[in-house]
Amino acid sequence: MRCNSIRVKLWSAIILTILIILVMSMIFQTSFLSSFYYNQKVREVEEDARDIARALGRNEYNFNVPYIDAIRNVNDVIVVTDYSGRITYITGSTDYKQGWFFGLKYLNKILKGQKIQDENKMLRGLDSIIIGVPIVKTQNSLWDVKQKQLYEQYIESEDLQMFIGAVYIITPLEPLEITTRAIRTQFLYIFLGAIIIASIIALFLAHSFTEPLIKINDAAKEIAKGNYNTKIHLKSSSEITTLGDTINNLAKQLSRVEQIRREFIANVSHELRTPLSYLKGYAEIMIDGLADTEFEREKYLNIILEESERLGKMVDEILHLSQIEAGSIQLKLSPFSMDSVIKRTIDKMLPLAVKKDISIKYSNLDGDLLLCLADENRIKQILINLLANAVKHSYDHSNILISSYRLNDRIYVCVRDNGEGISEEDLPFIWDRFYTAGKSKDKSIEGIGLGLSIIKSIINAHGCDITVNSVVGEGTEFCFWLPSYQES
Fold first, then answer.
1. How confident is the model at residue 157 (pLDDT cuts 50, 70, 90)?
2. Angstrom distance (rounded) from CA 228 to CA 212
3. Which fold has domain 9-179?
4. SS (HEC) of 217-250
5. What kind of fold does domain 238-326 have according to CATH?
6. pTM listed for this prediction
7. Considering only 66-75, 96-105, 152-161, 392-401, which range has the smallest mean pLDDT?
8. In the chain, where does the domain assigned CATH 1.10.287.130 lie?
9. What region, left, alpha or beta, does residue 475 occupy, with left being phi > 0 and alpha being psi -120 to 50 degrees?
10. Contact (Cβ atoms closer than 8 angstroms) between residue 88 and residue 81
11. What domain of life is recorded for the organism (predicted)?
């Protein structure tokens, strides 16, 4: 598996995201919980020390009474000293004895009524915390008023002789460290479990995401090789399935284009071969002097002329379409009467329709000149091509209907034939170059499939559009619109 593949990158991104979240959570939780437990422990020990100090200040305990009720942890050490730092009571430790001095470095703060908080290794060399509070000499009758306020706020301006000693409680930090280690161990197991589960899920997601892309890529390679029968069958998210359908449709379109290209080459080869064979054959007859009479010579020359014109028309259609698509042809816009152009075009195409006993009927629904602003010569070309196409695909003894009308600022023209029609399968491709939806029975008007493509290119160059409606066996109708001419 390549390191730069989508599958590896997706898997790595998911795992990295989970790792970052877990590491940040572990750091936050251990740091937060350690701080929380530490501060909670300090508050509890300080409250115990104050309870003892208040009781001693009111003479409710003497130094021979144990202070077990105030001890939350059996490992705590309680030390009571007088105002000089001499131990008057101690429990929980054999390292110090009554009468020894303790906490001299904290004495100044204690005599100022301040509490002290420090860390040491007094308990069997383990990390521990020491909390010390002063003992304030009070009278029971005054405790609820002035002395309680004095004790709680430690007013420094009062007489120092009121602080008669201190209470120290030393408690080990080992339970806190054990708790922190337990949390870290728990997070380690969670961490490892989450990585394993996340890896499985990430691999599954990466596979489900990349597998369709691999299939699409393989299909694209096959299409690039010319294998347009490639099909992709995907069961994935809607977006990827849509992409697969697009590739399938692309293959279908390319297959159609390839078929059209082959047909075009075959058609062009056939169409060019016919006039070229006529030109060559009759030219050889003329050169060899085989035309015995003037009539025969004139006949052969007319055939050469007709085939030359036919050949030139084919070449002109191909070059014309290329020029339109390249944008090298400039439209010459001018106002003209669509009604007049349609009538002249009908007169020109009528002899072609008469050969098949087809009548051409025209209806101007508005009865006016239908002034348009467009390139008149190009529009004539469009009408000729549409009428020639209608004659080509109409049944003998049928009718071709042309209608025109004005709607708002547009002039609409529709050409309808009664012929073989265009199948629904062919409709999306009739505007493609070299595409012929059907074969005309009239070989004299057989084309090479450029007419409709030229028509659409010219209409679109005017910023307008052309539509088609067709029913097989009933006929086809083409409608286009152009901007009407406004004198203002």
1. very low
2. 19
3. Beta-Lactamase (3.30.450)
4. HHHHHHHHCCCCCCCCCCCCCHHHHHHHHHHHHH
5. Helix Hairpins (1.10.287)
6. 0.43
7. 152-161
8. 238-326
9. left
10. yes
11. Bacteria
